[in-house]
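Workshop exercise sheet. Pairs work together: one partner reads the sequence aloud, the other fills in the structure field after running the prediction. Swap roles for the next sheet.
Pair: D.N. / O.F.
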Amino acid sequence: MSDSESSARSSSLLASFRALTSGSTGYLVVNAINITEGIAYFGILALLTLFLQHGAGWSLQDSGSLVGWFTALVTLLMVPGGVVVDRLGVRRGFTVALGLMVLGRAVLLIPGVTGPGAAALWGTGSALFVMAAANGVLQPALYAGVKEYTDPKTASMGYAVLYAAMNLGMAGELLIAGNVREWWAQSVESTDPSVQTNGLLGPLLLCMLITMATFVLHTTVFTRKVEARDRTAQEPVDDEYARKSFLEKAKSLPITDARFLYFIFILLFVRMLFAHQWLTVPHYATYELDVDVNKFLAINPIVIVIFTPLITAYTQRVHVLTMMIVGTTISAVSTVLLWGPPSEGLLIAYMVLFSLGEAVWSSRFLEYVADMAPVGQVGAYMGLGCIPWFAAKMLTGQYSGHMLAKYIPEANPNPVDPETQGVLFRAIHEFVALLPAGDASTMWTIYGVVACISPLGLIAARKWIVKGVSSGIAE
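Structure field:
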């Protein structure tokens, strides 16, 4: 790249960023909600399996399975949630989502005070369902908000900033969560025997309070006047789409496009690796390294915040499929760093390299799906595009606890007799028993090999996929 080209791209980057951050209250509010929800959602998610196991009384396997179903439902419910957003609009979609979020997160905290028991099991399950429904509306509202409050010149950077902003919130929470947890354990739980969650309740309570503050911010600042004034996307010429039934709207989605479906589903395998950040890394760091997991989980969002906008700015002319191949390859190969004895340094290196791979392709994928959608259908399209993410989180949650019990037995101090469990539990247990014996390095080797299916699948079908991936991106 010549100096003049580099200078031109840098100028374009600055111009796009200035355009995004000046004059649009609507866009700024969308990202403010994105940041605070990044704090709350990922702050809870990072500690959720540990809280369910030690605070609510779920087993290791069942806590992983429940979190897997929760995160999967978040994605699955984005499909009807997207239709809700298309019908209500971005502003009212946020109102519904944040209201449900406050309710769900408040109920989730109750077992931290009452202790384990049947009520705690039902309470946490119900709370997670409400939170999943809320997230199912919130995520399409964020994507639709970016499309409504950006123009063609700033759209690419708009999605990059959206993704980076979410991770900025995630990083902020993870960096302080350890201190909050330690303070809560020493200042509250040490003096109140009825509250014993090993400090986990403290960060979760903070996340719930942040959600309440976000709801107040939204209802106060993001008024109907602001929504109408700052919208840049053109309204549909008529309301034909709005008059369609739910089934008619579903038929208009690209669910019969084989290239589109292959493109989004082949990413499932590397997405499964990402799900291990909250299903496996917390236990790996706790039992293999005996360190605070939050400092490791904070690496991913920090890398995303720094590199996603930069990589997007300098690769806008690169075909989206090329970015998918490069990014997924980097993320999948990063597991090689964990194929040896446990090491803090290697875990840090793994998190950095994996995150760089994610930064290469993540926001461009969002842009591609949103670009396919006509005005008024962005929420529904984004929901469909995230269906493979649902499958990845659901599948990973089902087997992660069993893999931990086999390869890191210290994480399972109270083993469950498989014969007392359901058919699915026993089937997964028997399948995992067939895998090679070993330790944590064996587990990561298996995960890495599976993740490599994504880049290999994209490479094998590149010519076929390219014919259906246009979206204005240079080939």
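Discussion prompt: The longest helix spans residues 155-189. What would you look at next?
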